[in-house]
Design a protein that fits this description.
This protein is an alpha/beta fold and 277 residues long. It contains eleven helices and seven strands. The protein has one domain (12-272): Rossmann fold, CATH 3.40.50. It is 39% helix and 21% strand. Strands 3-2-1-4-5-7-6 form a seven-stranded mixed β-sheet. Helix 2 packs parallel to helix 3. The two termini are 38 Å apart. The protein binds S-adenosylmethionine. S-adenosylmethionine is lined by residues 6, 9, 22, 28, 32, 51-53, 56-57, 75-77, 80, 99-101, 118-120, 123-124.
């Protein structure tokens, strides 16, 4: 699963590869559309796309927002946003280059109808982000985001036919052990943001959790291999070079079936600033 990368995003190669991936495969556009739909945007005037990267989530928001709405896409990576600015020109969209934790320094208090954050919140200081989101939301405004299944400790119960070949992750581990003697740590790392933890962080910031759902996204091995070739996500984590990781991936991909399907799990959260606050 995706690792907790606070660094690595402000890099042109990662940004180009990420943007190409989001246009070739549905993973990020589908999860962005799901979150935008849950944000209830039909009467929104101002919407924040938090950790918006190259603009995939902003695109989903713009498709559902009223014609006179304004969308602010905020991200700390200049490299990601410069691609977004090039690919997505819409007069309703503005780009803010800043950390998510500093949102309240860039957007007036109580001015925002919804904050949407796709596939990023676990990379941030969540307590600081929740406090900033609460400050900028109007009473009744929504904060909608997802957490990768491994970080939330959830697995969608979808049952699929047994894949015809071992998964890419298993193959990558085997090849890495064989060629470099690197084996993954035996003890599983506990999830960073399970539902009770995220609920407490939101409640402490003055936000109510109004809905949660574990969703499952079908992912082909071909899509997974393309995702693993984005530098910031390349496996195994750690000391090997990108070229070494790509050689491992190429061998693993050659031993797998590109059409095998697995399920990627997400914990989706809808929180609200209470009306009387
Ligand atoms: C997986 S991308 C998601 C981008 C976009 N939401 C999408 O769905 O395509 C994660 C983004 O989070 C941004 N990010 C990570 N930590 C951040 C932080 N603390 N503040 C602002 N942006 C951050 C990265 O720069 C990157 O663009």
């Amino acid at each position: 699963m995706e690792y907790d990368a606070l660094t690595g995003w402000d890099d042109d190669t990662t940004a180009e590869a990420y943007a190409a991936f989001t246009r070739a495969y549905p993973m990020y556009s589908a999860s962005s559309r799901d979150l935008a739909a849950r944000a209830g945007l039909t009467r929104s005037r101002v919407i924040v796309d938090l950790c918006g990267g190259t603009g995939t989530t902003a695109e989903a928001i713009l498709a559902l927002a009223p014609p006179d709405a304004t969308v602010i896409s905020l991200d700390s990576s200049t490299a990601m946003q410069s691609i977004g600015r090039r690919l997505l020109s819409d007069p309703r969209l503005t780009w803010v280059n800043a950390p998510a934790e500093d949102l309240a320094a860039h957007v007036p208090a109580r001015s925002v109808d919804a904050v949407v954050c796709n596939s990023a919140v676990w990379k941030t200081d969540v307590a600081a982000v929740a406090a900033a989101v609460r400050r900028v939301l109007r009473p009744g405004g929504r904060f909608v985001f997802n957490i990768g299944g491994a970080f939330a400790g959830v697995t969608h119960p979808d049952t699929l036919p047994m894949p015809s070949m071992p998964s890419l992750s298993v193959l990558i581990e085997r090849i890495t052990a064989r060629d470099y003697g690197i084996v993954p740590a035996a003890a599983a790392v506990p999830p960073k943001l399970p539902l009770p933890v995220i609920t407490r962080l939101l409640t402490d910031a003055g936000l109510d959790v109004v809905a949660t759902e574990v969703t499952g996204q079908r992912t082909t091995t071909a899509e997974r291999a393309a995702w693993l070739s984005i530098p910031v996500f390349a496996h195994p984590e750690g000391s090997l070079t990108y070229e070494q990781k790509m050689a491992i991936l190429a061998e693993a991909a050659a031993q797998s079936n590109p059409d095998d399907v697995t399920v990627t799990s997400w914990l989706v959260i809808v929180a609200e600033r209470p009306e009387q606050s």
